[in-house]
Amino acid sequence: MTRQIIQTDKAPAAVGTYSQAVKVGNTVYISGQLGFDPKTMVLKEGFDAQAKQVFENIKAICEAAGGSLNDVVKFNVSLTDLNDFAALNEVFIANLTEPYPARAAVQVAALPKGGVVEIESILYIE
Fold first, then answer.
1. Is residue 58 classed as helix, strand or coil in its secondary structure?
2. Helix or strand or coil: residue 99?
C-alpha cells in the first residue's frame, strides 16, 4: 500500500520531523495535536480552550483526509494533570456522538511548548 501525506492549513503546521497525518489504505493516523491556533501558532490559554482547539485541529485534519470525527476509531490522550479528566470528557461529549471510539488517557510529566493536553487519533474511512 502507498502512504499519502495529509496536510491542511486549517490545522497547525508540523513543527518537527512528522506529518499532520498519514493515510495508508483506509486508515488515517493523525499526529498528536496541541491547542495551537493554526493561524497564529499561539497556544490557547487554559485546559478548556486548548482541548477545544485540539478538537478543531483534529476535525480539520479529518476533513482534509476525506473523513470526519465520526470516522475516528481511537483517541490517545495525554494530559499534564489527570484532574482535567472530567473537563476532557465534556469536550469529548460536545464533539462526538455515540457509539464513541476507543480511547486511552494518561498523565504525562510535560508536553511540548507548555501544552496541557495532546490528542492523537486513528480514523478508518470506508
1. helix
2. coil
Q: Which residue has the cell 493561524?
A: 39
Report long-range pairs for 63-69 (Cβ below 8 Å, ≥24 apart): 63/8, 63/10, 64/6, 64/7, 64/8, 64/10, 64/11, 64/20, 64/21, 65/6, 65/21, 65/23, 65/28, 65/30, 65/123, 65/125, 66/125, 67/28, 67/123, 67/125, 69/95, 69/96
Per residue in 55-92, pLDDT (tens digit) is 999 999 999 999 999 999 999 999 999 999 999 999 99
122 band by pLDDT with thresholds 50, 70 and 90: very high
Model confidence at 44: pLDDT above 80? yes
Cell numbers found for residue 47: 485546559
